[in-house]
Amino acid sequence: MAGLSFKLVSFPEMANAAASGSVGSNSEEATIAKLLKYGRLEGDPFTALDFLDDAVKRAERMVAASEGGGDGDGGRAFGVLASCLVARGNALLGAQDWDAADADLNRAASMLSSLPEPSTSEQQGQVFSYYEASANCTVCNSRQMALSLAYDGIGHSLSQRGRFEEAVMAFEACSGVLASNASIGLDVEEVPRGWFVAGLRGGPPTMLQRARLNVALAKYGAGDTVGSLSILQETDKGPDPLDKGFPQFWDARAAQVAALFGNGYDGKAELEWQQLCTSHPPPPPSVPKSKVKQYVNRAAQRMLDAERLVTANDCEDYDTGVAIPCDAAGIPGLGGSSSPCALYTAQEVRARLWPPALADALAEFRGAR
User: Fold this and answer.
1) Three-state DSSP class for 273?
2) Burial per residue of 188-202, b for 16 or more beta-carbon CB atoms within 10 angstroms, e otherwise
3) Alpha-carbon distance 83 to 139, whole Å?
């Protein structure tokens, strides 16, 4: 890390305070939880910051009370404050205030690294309350998830300021947290809804896939084009629900095309692009694990099959007006096309925060075809 300014400072006093002290009242913590929820659900990051600024101030008071010897658990207060900082850091990323986001997320990462690990999943859910855990997710509110998100956000704040070497370190730290907690399934957990640039079509299906893509993008931005290509080639491009050669991590596949071209492998880039341009079938319906839900799901599918027999099938694409069958609309916004490559224009990948050098390589590749 010599010569790089990205460092996680250890705060031993936080760990000491976590062992004793207190937090504010349950009603105050409930208010903070509501503010976090409002901030998470708010689509506009600037409006979300109004809620989250208030949440951080309240959490700061909880920490001050714990240090002053009030009633409660100091470790819990630091956990609540860390949740608030991660949440506000995420909103600041959305507002493109990279410096402020970096400050919040670095502070959160330092706190989370210093806090002792909660002994039960119930404690984890109580302390790190930014994300509402789904029925199948036992780690969504864990310290490890919060820490990996903090590193992820730090990496993005650095990348967007052109500090790609440091961003590589942050994204590698995120990968390390995920890989070291694979035993609890953190690496294969979905990227939480509402997190920065999450939920895009063709985006990373899991946290670890996102982290590896981010490392590769940052390496390319830092000038390590060979290292970037190596990571992209090793990255899991799945899932492939039909097991017919249509992996759904399109971002990584498109980035690999650009990296191949940027490294002088024009022919290999063309082959990869042709595969990405192959018409992709829609993913099959999900199959619930519960037998009751399986029965309901099968019944619903039969009803849809019956509906298709009696329903008019004349539609047009909303964006383009192109006439297409209603049940073969392709990828939304692409005029009925089912080829993922149509999505990856130079403008689109820049919006997805690819480094300029890689976005330029893709633009040059597409222009040379």
Assistant:
1) helix
2) ebbbbebbbbbeeeb
3) 14
Separation of alpha carbons 208 and 235, rounded Å: 9
What is the spatial distance between Cα 333 and Cα 129, in angstroms, rounded to a whole number?
A: 35
Higher-pLDDT residue of 254, 289: 254
**Phi, psi (rounded to 5 degrees) for 203:** -75, 180
Residue of 84, 190, 196 whose CA lies nearest to 129: 84
Least Cα distance to 219 among 359, 355, 98, 105 occurs for 355
299 pLDDT higher than 70: no
Angle, helices 74-94 vs 143-159, to 10°: value is 30
Q: Rounded distance, CA 111 to CA 14, Å?
A: 7
What's the token pair of residue 332? 């939304």
184 pLDDT band, cuts 50/70/90, is: confident
| Per-residue burial over 253-290, b = 16 or more CB atoms within 10 Å of its CB, e = otherwise | bbbbbbbbbbbeeeebbbebbebbeeebeeeeeeeeee
What stretches of the chain adopt beta strand conformation (E)?
314-316, 323-325
- What distance lies between CA 148 and its chain's CA centroid? 10
Q: Which residue has the higher pLDDT, 322 or 28?
A: 28
Structure tokens at 248: 């759904």
Q: Residue 282 in contact with residue 326, Cβ under 8 Å? A: no
The Cα–Cα gap between 73 and 67 comes to 10
CB 32 within 8 A of CB 80: yes
Cβ neighbors of 132 (< 8 A, separation 6 or more) are: 37, 140, 141
Q: Rounded to two decimals, what is the model's pTM?
A: 0.80
Distance CA 16, CA 11 (A): 9
Tens of pLDDT, residue by residue over 72-127, are: 456 778 888 998 999 999 999 999 999 999 999 999 999 988 876 655 444 443 44
